[in-house]
Amino acid sequence: MPLTPFSERAIAVIRAIPEGRVATYGQVAALAGNRRAARQVARLLHSSSHARLLPWQRVVGAGGRISLPGAGGDRQRRLLEKEGVAFGPSGRIDLSVHQWLPGPEPGGPLLG
Q1: What's this model's pTM, rounded to 2 decimal places?
Q2: What is the rounded CA–CA span in Å between residue 25 and residue 39?
Q3: Is 104 helix (H, G, I), strand (E, B) or coil?
Q4: 93, 85 contact by CB (below 8 A)
Q5: Which domains does the chain have, with CATH numbers?
């Protein structure tokens, strides 16, 4: 099934998140051109992250929380910790430390 232009842009944003950094679903949606499409980003990750080899673990909920329940959330946390992302006692990621803030890419447009 072909991707929508929004989905293609969202995938590009997700792929641009560097190791050791995170972005929120809403941030990915905004950078892909629709700040109200956070749920669409979640659906895209759910349906395409494995097949498209997306770094799904780097996308978290607002406020730095893992949104996946149970074993999926535990796996996401382990993957992020392996990349150097720290979690506070409440289980939140300090976005002021670990949130990705895109800038100009060499030879490419500004994402944000």
Answers
A1: 0.89
A2: 7
A3: strand
A4: yes
A5: 5-98 (1.10.10.10)
Which one, of 22, 4, 8, lies nearest residue 65 by Cα?
A: 22
Report which of 17, 14, 15, 54 is spatially closest to residue 38, judged by C-alpha positions. Answer: 14
Decide: 5 and 12 in contact? Cβ < 8 Å. Answer: no
DSSP state of 60: E
Q: According to DSSP H, which parts of the chain are helical?
A: 5-16, 25-31, 38-48, 70-82, 95-98
Ordered per-residue pLDDT tens for the chain, 112 residues: 689 999 999 999 999 999 999 999 999 999 999 999 999 999 999 999 888 999 999 999 999 999 998 999 999 999 999 999 999 999 999 999 999 998 765 444 444 4
